[in-house]
Amino acid sequence: TTMTGVGLEAVDPADVLLLYASQTGNAKLIAEDIREKCESEGVSCCLRCCSQLQQHLNNLHQVTCLILVAATTGDGDPPDTARKFNQHLHKKDQPRDALSHLSYTVLGLGDTNYNNFCNFGKTIDKRLHSLGAHRFYDCGWADDGTGLEVVIEPWMEGLFPALKKFLIQKKGSFISQDSTMEDASKTDLSNYSCKEKVTNDVTTIGNNEMFIHASENNLETNKSSLKVIDESVTDHVCIAPEDNDSTQRTLAIAGKYNIDILSQEEIQCLPIKLCSFPLDKKLTLPAQSPPYLTLECVDNSEGRTIQVNSPLPSAASQVVETHVVSVRRLTSADAVKTALEVTLRLPKDQDRFAYEPGDSFGIIVKNKENEVEILLNLLGISDRADKIYELSVLPNTKKKAAAVPKFIPVKSSLRYILEHCVDIRSVPKKPLVRALLEYTSSPSEKRRLQELVSKEGASEYTKNIREANLTLLDLLIIFGSCKPPVTTLLEHLPRLQPRAYSIISSPLVDSENISFVFNVVEIPKENTVTYARKGICTGWLFSVYNELASNGTDLNTTFSGLTISEKCNVCATIYLRSNQNFHLPKDLATPIIMIGPGTGVAPFVGFLRHRQKIMASNPNDIIGKSWLFFGCRHKEHDFLYKEEIERFQDEGILNHFIVSFSRETTACNGVKYVQDNILKHGAALASLLVNEGAVVYVCGDAHNMAKDVFEAFVSILQANCNQTENSARNLLAQMQIEKRYLQDVWT
């Protein structure tokens, strides 16, 4: 196959074009994994980002076999790197058979907690099919809400038999006819979920080099260090303490840094420590990723880090330095969650940060210093943490196209890299866990890690690591004999991502500052994670709040009222995010329906402040009707912005303010949630949608609320507009396309 065209001129002929469309890096990592497996299967593969195709669909005219790994971002949108590719693929002047020569498959990445699950991947699949392309293998739709690996692993297992069968049929004998061929998998993975039963009877996958087996010699060794616990846990084994000294050192370090960590006895009894299979059970393990990074000390003294210029995700502005000027607690001390409002002072050259109400921005964060210190101690490199090292690709590595990750500086200290560059709080993916077991000296702990990454232990990984939200630090504390080299961690840990927040300010009201609201994320020490912690960013800002409180500062006033010595001089590095659609209608006469329980109400406060200023400046303008649905637990504890919103209603800025209190149903005539009030006012809302072109805004929790609100709108359209369920859903889908049903939601 010849591959020519913009972005592909220098590429050698290959059997497969492997494209990825990635926003945060997941799709790229998966595509790189597919490329390595292609090479091991004797299939030549050209890996490219969608942006490298640039603006020419002609690139696909030169390709006969395509694999696309496609993430979905925002409200069903393509990643930034794939927007031009998507636009040109959807040009209307393409003949129906433009891609009839092309065979393809798509692996879509999405999250069912959001509407438009895997929308970009599904859109590309539909478009390719409409242009005459043929699927050589069923598309897979992986759900980050339940675990991407639940779909990805079986999808990839079936991909290569299907791919080789297609290539042999297409090109004849370029692959050795001695290879054992299997029929292509016909499994439809579109509805695959983690609720499906995971079978444990597969121990061999032919001659497939993607998998290797745990050594039976190791299994025999394991037997001596495991003991069966009580009869209620038949066929399970309990891990006895293996490294008391390591555990004690960890507990001592945690005490030094005031981290609330589980005791040694509690750690040994965690569910993740319990083996799930009999000792003679064969396990099918994924192949270990080849190591590819090496470190060399270039300066024995402390030195300067060479900064990296890796693009920030979804960046729509330059990075700017801001100062915290106000911290305000919005909830009572008795509230279940703590909500804070933080105000940041923008730099004087504000043209670098031009925003509208409803926009979001990213805060560049760093890992907690005490957690990094514990990690350095666990790895045994505390004494070298501040030396300057040069990071480079390991000579003769077997990893294809190996390179130092773009978000890691090639010259830096290990402390800087672990604090600022890699996400040590991310849930360890299977390739990292697979690598860790190679550096685990305890046979019993190694056996358990083998179970967690094995094909047979897929549900164990999901339950004990992914759903438990364990981190690398948790694993190293639990499996005390695991001592990986730091380069192994740098090869596998993802980028430390900025934290996104919605702006609640209006530039018409205050052009010098922006404000945002959040709940402090609390992760308690329970029977899963090994130590209590708060969110990286929210925990940092909460510590600022507490520091001022301990100094006796009135935290409902701005920092500018303090003396210089009392100021914390707290800075936040931020940037404006792209793909912003969550804006007020340009036509002020358009009605708006806002749904924002909890901190989801924050951007709507910005909307109303903005409208108040516009109405004051243009009193004769026609302003559309406005509805705001708000909900919280208790009227007296977490009713955010109550007085201000009620003033908006009194002044006619807001026409309808509908509230619900989920723990005080008697106060709301039995109504508990915002979706209940939507149903209650269904006739008026349906008329606004169908007859007056209202715009709906939903902000808050994606896991339950956003889905329930969507279903409530489906119901009111059925009940009040003579719509069938299908036609109601189609109407809302069209509203989403027209940017009349907008969401700013999070999990």
Could you please describe the fold and organization of this structure?
The protein has about 750 residues and is of the alpha/beta class. The protein is built from 22 helices and 26 strands. Strands 1, 2, 3, 4, 5 and 6 form a 6-stranded parallel beta sheet that branches. The protein has a 6-stranded antiparallel beta sheet with strand order 17-14-21-12-13-18, covered by helices on one side. Strand 8 (about 225-230) and strand 9 (about 235-240) form a beta hairpin. Helix 7 packs antiparallel against helix 9 (about 370-380). It is globular and about 75 Å long. The relative contact order is 0.09. Mean pLDDT is about 85; it is low at about 1-10, about 175-240 and about 555-565.
Question: How would you briefly describe this protein structure?
Answer:
By secondary structure, this protein is of the alpha/beta class. It is 31% helix and 18% strand.
Treating each run of at least 4 consecutive H or I residues as one helix, how many helices? Answer: 22
Structural class per helix/strand content? alpha/beta
Low-confidence stretches: 1-12, 173-242, 557-566
- Rg of Cα set: 28 Å
Please give the alpha-carbon distance between the first and last residues. Answer: 43 Å
The amount of helix comes to 25-40%
Regarding quaternary structure, what we see is single chain
- List how many beta strands DSSP finds: 26
Largest sheet geometry: 6 strands, parallel
Proportion of strand residues: 15-25%
Question: Given the C-alpha coordinates, what overall shape results?
Answer: globular
Overall pLDDT level: 83
